[in-house]
């Protein structure tokens, strides 16, 4: 598979860097957050999950341990080489067509905020193409103030520091985001494009793709369960 160059995306630091600027070794170090708890509370036990943009399996592995059947998709084989036990597929999400459907399709990592509107539309079409008629799509979106009040930093309990250094407008509503991850023995940076979406804009993007919000799963509305619009 020919890797697709992501214009405006780049990264630095030890180890392999994917076309969208993600460092494989960095993502192997990041701890598991609340994602497995959010998913477990939102979907039926043992559901068949299509995880789009799985990376090194940071969320995949806890979901497998909880009894879910996970098909993990990423465009980087170097990321997928770190995934254990799940069925893995190396493919750009936009091009994916497995010819079948899943109980749950998961689009995490703020991918719905792709700087290129055409890419966002393609990502959501992939979600719609693969979700069962009575299934759901779980989407992680940015917080309302994610692009403001910068720079900001957070010291993780495990000891590393993550900084969102800047969000510079590049035109047409997208921003260039620069982030830093500082560990005691290494530092990684990532620059990528992200498009802020208000709640109304987000719901409009879903509606355009044939999805509707079923419920916001977290108080900050960063996790959403959506369903096909023609289901009631």
The name of the CATH superfamily of the domain at 20-144 and 197-228 reads Vaccinia Virus protein VP39
**Average pLDDT, to the nearest integer?**
95
Strand content: 25-35%
Q: Summarize the amount of helix as a percent range.
A: 10-25%
Uncertain stretches: none
Radius of gyration: 17 Å
Count, helices = 6
CATH fold-level name of the domain at 20-144 and 197-228: Rossmann fold
Secondary-structure arrangement, i.e. CATH architecture of the domain at 20-144 and 197-228? 3-Layer(aba) Sandwich
Q: What does the model show?
A:
With 232 residues, the protein is an alpha/beta fold. The protein has a domain at 20-144 and 197-228: Rossmann fold, CATH 3.40.50.150. It is 21% helix and 34% strand. The chain contains six helices and twelve strands. The strands form two sheets. Strands 4-3-2-5-6-12-11 form a seven-stranded mixed sheet, sandwiched between helices. Strands 1-10-9-8-7 form a five-stranded antiparallel sheet, with no helix packed on it. Helix 5 packs across helix 6 (199-209). The longest helix is centred in the middle third of the chain and has 14 residues, at 117-130. It is globular, with a radius of gyration of 17 Å. The mean pLDDT is 95.
